[in-house]
UniProtKB/TrEMBL annotation:
The keyword Electron transport does not apply. Belongs to the short-chain dehydrogenases/reductases (SDR) family. Pfam families: adh_short. Residues 1-36 are annotated as: Disordered. This is SDR family NAD(P)-dependent oxidoreductase. The lineage of its organism: Bacteria, Bacillati, Actinomycetota, Actinomycetes, Kitasatosporales. Its EC number is 1.-.-.-. It comes from Streptomyces rochei (Streptomyces parvullus). The keyword Iron-sulfur does not apply. SMART domains: PKS_KR (SM00822). InterPro entries: KR_dom, NAD(P)-bd_dom_sf, Sc_DH/Rdtase_CS, SDR_fam. It is an enzyme of class 1 (oxidoreductase).
């Protein structure tokens, strides 16, 4: 059965929707005494779900100048107002939008200390039924847009000798999920990119964190065209993922699973792939 690929309401092009001039000051300014300064965080996919939760968690923590990006202009405005952030509505799958976002961030709040790449879309159904435009959209947003944006902000981090890139992956990318072939492939690419980039940046002061959530209670399933109907695993709130992101940034962790027990199926798949595939075929 083919599922319609729905897209959240979005602005026709990149647009500043919630500027906060008091929080948008270029440069790396010290605050709160000697040795401390306000850091700059850029969060994508911030109009809802995990991205919005991350933005709110960083806003609650303080010490961050936030730039938020997402496709749903009105939801993004609300999150930005809640977090005293500057919001830049854009569809990062559109060529050039990544460059506009990076340039806007540099011009308004200065170099990026933390990038949380949370923008993502999914699609559920048999691969042979997947429309070509949905296939392109899943790859464009989850993979291409993420890599392009990372490519734009990492050089500044390396030059500064500090920074962190947080890539929001998925359990689907670690173990593969039935009826989500392209989404699983896209998130697997994000995980492999995180590992490879981490090796490359070793010694530069720039870290890479791969966050691997399971089922999260967000509009993701509504947007992908198929609701989540399984009784287990139970969805976790996006705030739990946001707290994991905050902790990973604070402690410099390379990879985080949310919830933590998700490491188990990944280890089983790695240690006994045949057994894992038999179990997956039986239990889905």
């Amino acid at each position: 059965m083919t599922h319609a690929f729905s897209r959240p309401r979005s602005a026709p092009g990149p647009q500043v929707v919630a500027p906060h001039a008091g929080h948008a000051r270029p440069g790396r300014e010290p605050v709160g005494g000697a040795g401390t300064r306000t850091r700059t965080a850029l969060v994508t996919g911030a109009s809802s779900g995990i991205g919005a939760a991350v933005a709110r968690r960083l806003g609650d923590e303080g010490g961050w100048r936030l730039v938020l990006s997402g496709r749903d202009r009105e939801r993004l405005r609300t999150v930005a107002e809640d977090t005293s952030a500057t919001a830049f509505a854009a569809d990062l799958a559109v060529p050039g939008a990544d460059r506009q976002l990076a340039d806007f961030t540099l011009a308004t709040v200065g170099p990026v200390d933390l990038l949380v790449a949370g923008a993502g879309v999914g699609w559920a159904g048999e691969f042979r039924d997947m429309p070509a435009h949905a296939l392109d959209q899943v790859l464009d947003i989850n993979v291409r847009a993420t890599l392009r944006l990372v490519r734009l902000v990492v050089p500044g981090m390396v030059e500064a000798g500090s920074g962190r890139v947080v890539l929001i992956g998925s359990l689907a990318g670690s173990v593969a999920v039935r009826d989500e072939a392209v989404y699983s492939a896209a998130k697997a690419a994000v995980g492999a990119f995180a590992d490879a980039l981490r090796y490359e940046l070793r010694g530069t002061g720039v870290g890479v964190t791969h966050v691997v959530p399971g089922v999260v209670d967000t509009p993701f399933f509504e947007h992908r065209g198929t609701p989540y109907r399984r009784s287990r695993p139970r969805p976790v709130p996006p705030e739990r993922v946001a707290e994991a992101v905050r902790t990973a940034v604070e402690r410099g962790r390379d990879e985080v699973y949310v919830p933590g027990w998700l490491r188990l199926p990944c280890r089983v798949r790695g240690a006994a792939p045949g057994l894992y595939r038999r179990l997956a075929a039986r239990f889905g």
